[in-house]
Amino acid sequence: MTQRYKELYRPQFHFSPEEKWMNDPNGMVFFNDEYHLFYQYHPYGTTWGPMHWGHAVSKDMIHWEHLPIALFPDELGAVFSGSAVVDWNNTTGFFDKNQPGLVAIYTSAGTYPESDRPLQQQSLAYSKDNGRTWVKYQGNPVLSNVSITDYRDPKVFWHEETQKWVMVLATGQTITIYTSLNLKEWEFASEFGHTAGSHDGVWECPDLFALPIDGKVKWVMIVSIGDNGKTAEGSRTQYFIGQFDGTTFINDYADTTVLWLDYGRDNYAGVCWSDIQDGRRIYLGWMSNWRYANQVPTEVWRSAMTLPRELSLAATEDGVRLFQKPVAEVCTIRKEMKIYTNEASTIPLTFSLMEINIEFEKGSSNQFGFVINHAEEEKTVIGYNVLEEKLFVDRTKSGDNSFSTSFPAIQEAPMKLNHQRLKLQVFVDTSSVEVFANDGEIAITSLLFPSEGSKELLLFSHEGTTKVLNLTLTELNSIWK
Ligand code: FRU
Q1: Ligand 1 mutation pick, 39, 151, 205, max ligand atoms within 8 A of CB
Q2: Residue nearest to atom 8 of ligand 1 (CA)
Q3: Which residues, including other chains, have CB under 8 Å from residue 33's CB and lie 6 or more apart?
């Protein structure tokens, strides 16, 4: 038997469960010096099934310790996605004096009595021992609406200005906002999104949070949209930027504006950690796509998370946009860095887990970038198309594509060069690449299934010249012992 975490395709510096199926990150919260990660988990199979909350903790969001399953299905149904908060002021009354604890708010996904019609309701569980054991609230469910079938994925936060808990909930093709004083009784506040953004699929897994920009505050709403089986992209994630007053979210942009969080196929259902005390807003996504998540060619386990990413807002030519960068804690896996100054276009690799930092300056070429050669006939191309002004990641020849006709793809992002320059930060793991362009303005997250580790880097510049201003390769460590 292959040793755990040494299996073919096993990510080495991304979180994946020891075994069996995982999807969305859930209940991410920072408490008592630990980052908690719960996740949609099916402990009895490597495909989606009755959902539990798996659990892991970390000191740095990079190295993880697996813990026993936190939440199991009950008479209200399976445990779908949701969030967790620290109830600092014991608004729920679940805790003892001066001993705040964790409250999880999740979707109980069941069926109507004596029928198989789906019924999704919101429930609570709480923990007094740093998330190690959980008690389900006796008054569950705390929020129901029998007229909406897709009614799920509560993300809750404390809104300081109005002194209330706020919940954003996916409600079919909209996000509904509820407020509460005690997490147990919820009041309807508003509904957002009937005509805004993309409605290509069911709306899922919302998040809502504030970020600073130019001395002011803007609110970002993240909304994942499910796979409709029609568009090439499958499931993907959009976001909105606007204002929020504790009751209503107002989009700054026209309804027709669609802002994508990631232009790769494999970043879905992501949300941010609650209660991080240092002011950072940190996001984690599920690194897969409902189009083929159940078919990817891994055996013992299925799915991994993206790298945790710090979010920020910045002005661009097109308006304010969400930027993302891997958290500073990735430094904990960096080994030796090699700086390349010569003009060689072929670089043999002595390691295959790596971070590539490269900056190009446009010359006369109409397409430039680099190829990562994995095994014979297996390569991934990362480049920029000057005429179309597009960054791309081509995985059509990266490795095993056989499991889904939707998998082979050239993933493209519209992007302008910055003063003729393109700066890329690329993380290459055993079965994924994450590309961050121009300091996090654009992200492309992509799974790949090469049969071997990367062997060689090949710089290219089609029909003309391109200058490589700098190139460094940093070997990365595995996070698993
Ligand atoms: C998103 C999602 C959620 C749901 C969960 C079920 O990927 O469909 O809407 O709560 O997965 O596992």
Answers
A1: 205
A2: 204
A3: 59
